[in-house]
Specification:
By secondary structure, the chain is an alpha+beta fold. The chain has 2 domains: about 250 residues, Spore Coat Polysaccharide Biosynthesis Protein SpsA, Chain A, CATH 3.90.550; about 130 residues, Trefoil (Acidic Fibroblast Growth Factor, subunit A). Helices cover about 25% and strands about 25% of the residues. Strands 19-18-17-16-13-24 form a 6-stranded antiparallel β-sheet, with no helix packed on it. Strands 3-2-1-4-11 form a 5-stranded mixed β-sheet, with helices on both faces. Strand 16 and strand 17 form a beta hairpin. Helix 8 runs parallel beside helix 9. The protein is elongated. About 40% of the residues are buried. The C terminus is likely disordered.
Length: about 475
């Protein structure tokens, strides 16, 4: 962006930074590419050090060969853990050694470009209680070609399964900004790349040490900074390339446990929407959260209702009326439920089908609303529809709360258990194909037909084990 390149910085007024890079069995080329790019693109006056945290790697080249390679770099320090700590704790170990004013966390397969750090440091210098993220540009896994993801930066969000999602900047936020190079408020962050004042990070309670490996810590920190008086932004003038590997070096065996901790501490009664969509989470042990609750009380943090109203007003809050959400179970075919496996790049490009009930929520979680919609769990909120003249059930984007409901997505859940679609005059019907496969389609409603009867099954509230 031309206006970003034209921007001048007074380096004497900018805070310094420590760049923290945790890794585990990272490829030699990508790790060194990350380190070199930081050294070559960060003004020396701003870079206090690069702190590498080797989280108990067992690759031979990451031992003496790595030590020899970096030995002539005064500002690169290598710390090795004595056991596998996971990304969250490894980063905190690195932060404990940092001497810069600002902690800049990077993944170990990145490429920084000239001008990447100055906007982040300037913004934190202006407002210490802001966590600032760069725009993440994609580096292709196969060709290593560097390219921008979008013409305009995306901001972070989440769905009610507490899965991080990218989405476009809302129109109301666009109108608030005085120029395209201003930082953009973001409800959440991806978590791999961000800068934060070291003092503010410690004031805020750093990471939740009860979280294992990684996963969920990005949403927890996002909720916390917003609810406790800070802010989270993406700076359009800061760009860092990132390789999205086919297989992440860190598995996420504790992702659900971590997410439950975030929900229990920060989401108040709204956590029930998360549990409704993740039935296994109700039985997940999540450890002691008393210290995190004390931090929330000490910082006099706002409730999750405040967060939704002031930070993420575009997120649809489900009704989740008792008896009207969960898995839609067929009465005609035993243990079969409505299922929607949304394509990654085209969420409206598949049909609702029938599949064995698995009790895990997710692609079998639906909600019947007071607006007579059948909503599917998604950050973009999809509604079941019958396209004009068709007999299949598709998905389309639900209307905004202030817009009329199109007739193609209006359903009547009748007392006899039928799901009637007034616009087409038909009912959802389960059936078996000639090959014995189960599926659904729209058919003329027939009184007493079990194949046209449905009922919601959803888990009841239960106490959650510590």
């Amino acid at each position: 962006m031309i206006r970003c390149r034209a921007k001048k910085f007074d380096y004497r007024r900018l805070p310094t930074t420590s760049v923290i890079i945790a890794f585990y069995n990272e490829a030699w080329s990508t790790l060194l590419r990350t380190i070199h790019s930081v050294l070559e693109s960060t003004p020396a006056v701003l870079l206090r050090e690069i702190i590498l945290i080797d989280d108990f790697s067992d690759r031979v080249y990451l031992k003496s060969q790595l030590e020899q390679y970096i030995s002539n770099w005064e500002r690169v320090r290598l710390i090795r853990t004595n056991k596998r700590e996971g990304l969250v704790r490894a980063r905190l170990i690195g932060a404990s050694y940092a001497t810069g004013d600002v902690l800049t966390f990077l993944d170990c397969h990145c490429e920084c470009v000239p001008g990447w750090i100055e906007p982040l440091l300037e913004r934190i210098g202006e407002n210490e209680s802001t966590i600032v993220c760069p725009v993440i540009d994609t580096i292709d896994w196969n060709s290593f070609e560097f390219y921008m993801q979008t013409d305009e930066p995306m901001i972070g969000g989440f769905d009610w399964r507490l899965t991080f999602q990218w989405h476009a900047i809302p129109e109301v936020e666009r109108k608030k900004r005085k120029s395209r190079i201003e930082p953009i408020r973001s409800p959440t962050m991806a978590g791999g790349l961000f800068a934060v004042s070291k003092a503010y990070f410690e004031h805020l309670g750093t990471y939740d040490m009860g979280m294992d490996v990684w996963g969920g810590e990005n949403l927890e920190l996002s909720f916390r900074v917003w609810q406790c008086g800070g802010s989270l932004e993406i700076h359009p003038c800061s760009h860092v390339g990132h390789v999205f590997p086919k297989k992440a070096p860190y598995a996420r065996p504790k992702f659900l446990q971590n997410t439950v901790r975030a929900a229990e501490v920060w989401m108040d009664t709204y956590k029930q929407h998360f549990y409704n969509r993740n039935p296994p989470a109700r039985k997940e042990t999540y450890g002691d959260i008393s210290e995190r609750v004390v931090i929330r009380e000490r910082l006099k943090c706002n409730g999750f209702d405040w967060y939704l109203n002031n930070v993420y007003p575009d997120l649809h809050v489900p009704e989740d009326r008792d008896g009207w959400h969960g898995a839609l179970l067929s009465s005609g075919i035993h243990s079969e439920c409505l299922d929607y496996n949304a394509p990654e790049h085209n969420p409206t490009g598949a049909h609702v089908s029938l599949f064995s009930c698995h009790g895990q929520g997710g692609n079998q979680y639906f909600e019947y609303t007071t607006h007579k919609e059948i909503r599917y769990n998604s950050v973009t909120e999809l509604c079941a529809e019958v396209p004009e003249g068709q007999i299949y059930i598709g998905m389309t984007h639900c209307p905004h709360d202030r817009t009329p409901t199109p007739p193609t997505i209006i359903w009547e859940f009748r007392e006899d258990g039928t799901l009637y679609h007034p616009h087409s005059g038909m009912c959802i019907t389960s059936y078996r194909t000639a090959e014995g496969r189960t599926d659904v389609q729209m058919r003329i409603c027939t009184s007493g037909d079990k194949q046209q009867r449905w009922k919601f099954e959803n888990g009841r509230d239960e106490p959650h084990p510590k």
